[in-house]
């Protein structure tokens, strides 16, 4: 006797119904915000990443409705939008908590205690990777290296850093998040919810008093880049090649925006280390 696919609980992968539309008032508000984002780019499709953050700020994850909204606004197909939304891990694909607690379990953090922290939080919260506590407050996740290895093991909450954690400090952290006790990241701006964070990532100002100052603002190179992007002339900032000191006769040709732009020693400029064919014998 054979059983049908539905009896076996097997999905036939039938096409889904069209995504439901946003209510008119929500759509009008998102469309105004979306047009503001698109206007920042010479090519509208470049606005897709911030637009995905915008719809994530509305619903807490990127829904099919959100993808359809982005596609319509940017004149893309929903397949094109879905390809991007499913590629980047910063976009959530299912509802989750107010606080995304990411434990770095990349190599350095893992050996410094990240694996132990993750196991401890799984047990303490009663959830696994990518799962959310019953109160809807915390989603626990493994995360990859966040370039904060010097502070390993690192936990991130809504992309704010909590450095040098231990299993005990991480358990306290999630308890405070769940009870609403004040929580201060090790550095950076004060905590806000995942939806609020998503709106900031969409490119809207963080209007909380002192938040921008607390995050340290943009560095000099970013500000120079912003001016250049706006077509302004940025003042040259003199940075000398790494490892060298300022010459006495500073000339415009030795000015560089960063030490990475500055010419590094090469075989041509460094006679002490000439390059050239090396014989098999090393001569
Ligand atoms: S390995 Fe954890 S921040 Fe780099």
From TrEMBL:
<feature type="region of interest" description="Disordered">
    <location>
        <begin position="234"/>
        <end position="283"/>
    </location>
</feature>
<protein>
    <submittedName>
        <fullName>NADH-quinone oxidoreductase subunit NuoE</fullName>
        <ecNumber>1.6.5.9</ecNumber>
    </submittedName>
</protein>
<dbReference type="Pfam" id="PF01257">
    <property type="entry name" value="2Fe-2S_thioredx"/>
</dbReference>
<comment type="similarity">
    <text>Belongs to the complex I 24 kDa subunit family.</text>
</comment>
<feature type="compositionally biased region" description="Polar residues">
    <location>
        <begin position="245"/>
        <end position="256"/>
    </location>
</feature>
<keyword id="KW-0001">2Fe-2S</keyword>
<keyword id="KW-0560">Oxidoreductase</keyword>
<keyword id="KW-0479">Metal-binding</keyword>
<dbReference type="InterPro" id="IPR042128">
    <property type="entry name" value="NuoE_dom"/>
</dbReference>
<dbReference type="GO" id="GO:0050136">
    <property type="term" value="F:NADH dehydrogenase (quinone) (non-electrogenic) activity"/>
</dbReference>
<dbReference type="InterPro" id="IPR002023">
    <property type="entry name" value="NuoE-like"/>
</dbReference>
<dbReference type="InterPro" id="IPR041921">
    <property type="entry name" value="NuoE_N"/>
</dbReference>
<dbReference type="InterPro" id="IPR036249">
    <property type="entry name" value="Thioredoxin-like_sf"/>
</dbReference>
<keyword id="KW-0408">Iron</keyword>
<keyword id="KW-0411">Iron-sulfur</keyword>
